[in-house]
Write a structure and sequence with these properties.
single chain, 3-stranded mixed β-sheet, about 30% helix
């Protein structure tokens, strides 16, 4: 009930942008919010995983709520907690966009999402997991994804969370969908995006020209999501590439 109240407080037209932050990413969060404010986007909330982060963000008048948890410092495992929290948001019957804090929102992408899709997601740069990439020719990145509270999406998260272990959310989401969707169920669209279709799932995978991962930002780009190798490099890289606007 408490979470539903918070969702209703920050959501607009039943849509909420959600991100997660710990004390290592406090300043990154401020830059992320600065880009949203530039686009007049106010329907967001940052989940603070520790009290220090919550206090810092509140002091800077950032929409935040405290949910004690752990965000791993690198890919490979430990993302089960975030997956669990995203399911909680979905259970509030609100559409959400999950966005990593190192994404840079350059244009408002809301018109790119549609209730006709169960999910609208970005592509992975590193072709992980390999077996899914070998089958589909690409993989999905959960660092930027729009999710609707449909039975199919909730079932996906519930199924993934049944694994009693620390896991990589990207690996598990891709493997789950790959078990349901074959190569013949994939449709290429004219905007370089792709549709994944099954009997009960309809997912749009945005083209790399829309959610850019390689650094070739063009007028078609709405969100730039650079591939970060180390947490410590994030602020430095965004400044070097001209995407740091907070200071």
């Amino acid at each position: 009930m408490v979470l539903k109240t918070e969702v209703e407080k920050y959501a607009k037209n039943e849509l909420l942008v959600v991100s997660f932050c710990n004390k290592l990413y406090k300043r990154i969060a401020l830059n992320w919010v600065a880009h949203l404010k530039k686009l007049h986007i106010k329907n967001y909330v940052i989940v603070s995983t520790d009290k220090e982060t919550e206090s810092f963000l509140l002091d800077h008048e950032v929409n935040t709520l405290y949910m004690k948890g752990i965000i791993p410092r690198q890919s490979g495992g430990g993302w089960s907690w975030r997956t669990e929290q995203l399911l909680k948001f979905l259970n509030c019957d609100c559409r959400i966009i999950h966005s990593d804090l190192d994404t840079v929102w350059l244009k408002n992408p809301f018109h790119l999402i549609s209730k006709n899709y169960d999910a609208v997601v970005s592509r992975d740069l590193g072709q992980f997991p390999k077996d899914v990439n070998d089958k589909w020719g690409f993989c999905i990145c959960p660092g930027w994804m729009y999710l609707t509270p449909t039975f199919a999406i909730k079932s996906m998260f519930t199924s993934i969370l049944q694994k009693k272990m620390k896991f990589d959310d990207q690996e598990q989401i891709n493997k789950y969908l790959c078990s349901l969707i074959s190569k013949k169920d994939i449709v290429e669209l004219i905007d370089e995006s792709t549709e994944l279709r099954s009997s009960h799932l309809n997912i749009k995978v945005l083209g790399n020209n829309i959610i850019e991962r390689y650094g070739y930002v063009t007028d078609y780009c709405y969100v730039y999501h650079p591939h970060m190798r180390k947490n410590a490099d994030c602020e430095t890289r965004l400044k070097k590439e001209g995407f740091w606007i907070y200071d």
